[in-house]
Amino acid sequence: MIDRRRIITLAGAAGATSLAAPFVRPSWAQANTLKVGLLLPYSGTYAPLGEAINRAMELYVKQQGGKLAGREIVFAKVDDESEPAKATENTTKLISGEKVDILTGTVHSGVAMAMAKMAKEDGLPTLITNAGVEAITRGACAPNIFRTSFGNSQVGEATGLAMLKAGVKNVVTVTWKYAAGEESVAGFKKSFTAGGGKIIKDITLPFPDVEFQSILAEVGSLKPDAVYSFFAGGGALKFIKDYAGAKLNEKIPLWGPGFLTDGVEKAAGPAGDGVKTALHYVESLDNPENKKFAADFSAAYGKAPDVYAVQGWDAMQLLRIGLEAAGGDTKKRPEMFAAMSKASFPSPRGPFKLGTSHNPIQNFYLRELRGGENKYLGIAAEMLADDTTGCKLA
Ligand code: PHB
After folding, report:
1. What single-letter DSSP state applies at residue 79?
2. Which of 40, 152, 239, 264 to mutate to test the pocket of ligand 1 (most atoms within 8 A of CB)?
3. What is the DSSP annotation of 302-350?
4. For the chain, percent of residues with pLDDT exceeding 70
5. What is the DSSP string of 85-139?
């Protein structure tokens, strides 16, 4: 494998030559390098999620000797701060500034909407590594956009099924008021009310606020059987701790999509004991792909992987499949996208395949946080697909 210093030297030499001869062809190093753009939150409440995705992507490429389909992979990174107002500018930094060959990211649904709009216009091969905003794989779907994570309502729906099965009847929902929280709650309500469950009240607060005291007081007075809540990252940790601090955990079980506990298992401490969630991953999943992935990730970073890491890992698996079908040439987009659309491979999460709108069809697992670990309790929903309303690709 060619080392980094040699690449810099080659690039430098090409630059020097081009001064004398403007139409010189790119050096071997430039031609062979494939630039993968990462639009992720490297700061703010979702920073740990961005870090996990980034780490798994780098680990995957490292294990492939730094190359996919013979192309040397380099990463270009932009911190999107989970700030929708800056999303177009930040995506432009990758598309026009860095001239990336592949676009990946991000975590926040509002940022992802702007990113996907630009990606759709540009046609650049794009992998969504977390954000679950429904439009991306419904009305705003595109041949060049693939999601390796989930749809927001897909996870909510699976959690609703698990709560019904557990005998929960009356629920208060609590979430951030933006696409992810709202769509998550809508998906939950779809399955939960279809099975006879009742919603007592929906409570929201703006993203990324974490002033939960008055909300928790209201939940206590409403006395539901359980709370359904979508939070993630730093906000999820604060919610779990405040919930226990208000002693609600002793009488009203806390439920939610697994984003509530992923990545914050250890930090939650005893406050997290008993939080039940459904998600498309649990660290202890017993399959060979996960055993190796969890061991390698822990060895590399001194921390167990979470769902975000798996989504980054699978984005690289999917990209590799696409690139190999195109002989490493990202200009061969029809070949690349056809292979990615029909890809099916063993993921650490279990079997992975995409539906017609390029959103994963996958298992959802019931988990319970205990002693700093999400324990596997069983299947919440088997190979559940998200709604594809408004998307016509197939
Ligand atoms: C989203 O904004 O779509 C989102 C963010 C964090 C999560 C899940 C979904 O954990």
Report:
1. E
2. 152
3. SS---HHHHHHHHHHHHHHHHHHHTTT-TT-HHHHHHHHHT-EEEETTE
4. 92
5. GGHHHHHHIIIIIS--SEEEE-S-HHHHHHHHHHHHHH---EEE-S---GGGGTT
Say yes or no: domain 153-279+365-384 is CATH 3.30.870.10.
no
Burial label, 373 (beta-carbon count in 10 A; 0-12, 13-18, 19+): middle
Instruction: Output the ligand 1 site: residues, CB below 6 A.
Output: 107-109, 130-133, 152, 180, 232, 259
Domain ranges of the chain: 4-150+286-358, 153-279+365-384
Asked if domains 4-150+286-358 and 153-279+365-384 share a fold, the reply is yes
CA of 22 to the centre of ligand 1 (A): 46
- From 83, 130, 280, mutation site for ligand 1 pocket: most ligand atoms within 8 A of C-beta: 130
- pLDDT of 17 strictly over 50: no
Question: Tokens 């919603």 appear where?
Answer: 199
pLDDT digits (tens, 9 = 90+) for 88-111: 999 999 999 999 999 999 999 999
Q: Is the pLDDT of residue 74 over 80?
A: yes
Q: What one-character-per-residue DSSP string does 189-252 give?
A: HHHHHHTT-EEEEEEEE-TT----HHHHHHHHHH--SEEEEE--HHHHHHHHHHHHHTTGGGTS
Closest CA to 213 of 184, 185, 238, 250: 238
User: Would you give the distance in Å from CA 291 to the centre of its chain?
Assistant: 20
| Radius of gyration over every alpha carbon of the chain, rounded to an integer in angstroms | 22
pLDDT at 383: 98
Q: pLDDT class for 31, splitting at 50, 70, 90?
A: confident
From ligand 1's centre to the CA of 19, what distance in Å? 47
Atom of ligand 1 nearest to the CA of 110: 2
Q: What is the mean pLDDT of residues 72-91?
A: 98
Q: Which ligand 1 atom sits nearest the alpha carbon of residue 111?
A: 2
What's the DSSP call for residue 386? P
Q: Nearest 5°: phi and psi at 169?
A: -120, -40
Distance CA 266, CA 373 (A): 7
pLDDT in tens, 324-337: 999 999 999 999 99
Write down the CATH superfamily of domain 4-150+286-358.
Response regulator (3.40.50.2300)
